[in-house]
Amino acid sequence: MTSLLVAPNTASTYEWDLVSPAGKGSDPFVLRELSEFRGRILYAGGRRPRFRRAGGGYADDDRLDSRSFHVTARMSGDLVGYLRLRPIPEDSQSFLERLATRPQLEAALKEMRLTPNDCLEVSRWIVAPCARGTAVASTLVVSAHAVGRWLGKRRLLATVGLRDGQVSMLARFGGQVIHSVDAKFLEEYDDDVALMHFDLDSPPRRIAEKLDEAERLLNLCVPV
Fold this sequence. Notes:
About 25% of the residues lie in helices and about 25% in strands. Helix 3 packs across helix 5 (about 205-215). By secondary structure, it is α+β, with helices and mostly antiparallel strands. Strand 5 (about 120-125), helix 3 (about 135-150) and strand 6 form a beta-alpha-beta unit. It is built from five helices and nine strands; from the N terminus they run E-E-H-E-E-H-E-H-E-H-E-E-E-H. The protein is globular, with a radius of gyration of 17 Å.
């Protein structure tokens, strides 16, 4: 795990961590904390009832968590932002399989002259209500680019909800919808989910200007 302190363009200061599957990402306590945070925010006052446990509390348990990287943002120790990153494995165990078959994905990548091994999957992009409108969301996007470059990837593939404006926001950071893969309604998220891609080789200026700083803060100096 690597820790950093990022001072966003607000009066607040956020603590950022990269949780690796070889480090804290294998700790059941850490995974439970991440699951609870995701479930609590996704529940959204009852909009997504699947994330509320029958006995109380919240959870978004996922079998892929222990084999993924996680970026977390905290304020005074409390989680306020999160995203999950995962190299696309040969066995196709990824969230992407909810939207596209393996042949569909490979065909889309072939058009971009890429292979699955060139890509890093990004999902569960979540910001707590108290941190919306701050630098948390944009810093999460830059962090995803920084981690992708650190892992030697060329493209981010992100599953993004359509109903709350995520696609429009991420388009301002260079995200492009992959139109050959149809958006799909996922009942548990009460949302239509689309597939977007971000070019790590040629990031937009608003990302590129912050990448070196993010890589230093995350201590992403030595390739894995």
